[in-house]
Amino acid sequence: MLSKKTKYGIKALAYIARKKDRKPVQASEISENENISQKFLESIMLELRKSGFLGSKKGKGGGYYLIKEPGEIRMTAVIRVLEGPIAMVPCVSLNYYEKCDDCPDENTCSVHKLMIQVRDASLQVLGENTLEDIASLQ
Amino acid sequence: MLSKKTKYGIKALAYIARKKDRKPVQASEISENENISQKFLESIMLELRKSGFLGSKKGKGGGYYLIKEPGEIRMTAVIRVLEGPIAMVPCVSLNYYEKCDDCPDENTCSVHKLMIQVRDASLQVLGENTLEDIASLQ
DNA sequence: CTATAATCCTATCGGTTTACTAGGTTTTAA
DNA sequence: TTAAAACCTAGTAAACCGATAGGATTATAG
Hints:
The structure is a homodimer. Chain A is mostly helical. Chain A has two domains: 4-66, Winged helix-like DNA-binding domain superfamily/Winged helix DNA-binding domain (Arc Repressor Mutant, subunit A, Orthogonal Bundle), CATH 1.10.10; 71-135, no CATH class. Helices cover 49% and strands 6% of the residues of chain A. Chain A contains six helices and two strands; from the N terminus they run H-H-H-E-E-H-H-H. Chain A has helices at 4-18, 27-34, 38-50, 75-82, 110-128, 131-135; strands at 54-57, 63-66. The first copy, chain A, has a two-stranded antiparallel ribbon. In chain A, helix 1 crosses helix 3 and helix 2 packs across helix 3 (38-50). The mean pLDDT of chain A is 96. The first copy, chain A, binds a DNA duplex through helix 3. Chains A, B: It comes from Christiangramia sabulilitoris. Chains A, B: One of its GO terms (molecular function) is DNA binding. Chains A, B: Keywords: DNA-binding.
């Protein structure tokens, strides 16, 4: 299950990406339009800034803006930052690998084999979708 | 993330499927060989029995056995019973649908569109893999 | 008939995560 | 100088997870 944090983060990024101009967008505006608790959203925006997706401007007329082009932001990257691993099991995760303590040999593990396939299928979809694809309406 | 419950459940099913004969397999045997807490496994086996994957026999020489052929058990079915929805968001789940309360229109939701693709990719993999595929070594 | 081995059942529990909320501080533009 | 915005830290209620505890029930073997 995708956490609300990730879901809200993606929605916020898409909201900003849909704007033509590059003027900073306030968290309050996104919060109202996307029905997200403002304080919660603020913490998410902060994280997106710290991880290099957004820039920010403080004070009156400030807000958040995209640093890269929407077409250059893969959804794999967004999800990995907000949610963590894309794999369903740590032992098949490319970026967050962890050995299972119950499993003596990954190569003969039935779950392992299956989850590699699931991971690859998800990576395929999330890797070929960019923020631009996501943000476009309809 | 896949819960341990689901992971253990799949391992247990695969363990039983690998046996040539159809004699009941005890939870204690699976628990030892797959390094799973026995009491926890018992509750999982019970669930798998109640949901129609396993039959059971009580008393000495008892245990659990498969009701269908391994080749007829799709991993989608197993995961849906143990884990719940395969989709990452309830609003794209086929079997556990729920409307998002923040989302006025699913058709224009960027997350929705993306998650449908992820769901379909996962369904593809989990639907074409059966317990037989999973259980076969290497 | 009895001992034992197995499933079955209910309850509980400590730890972690989630989704916020509260209450501010700091910075900037008008 | 004021207001609006991001920034920061902490806390918190609820849910969920991964067990554990303690038995009740049933079946087999001797």
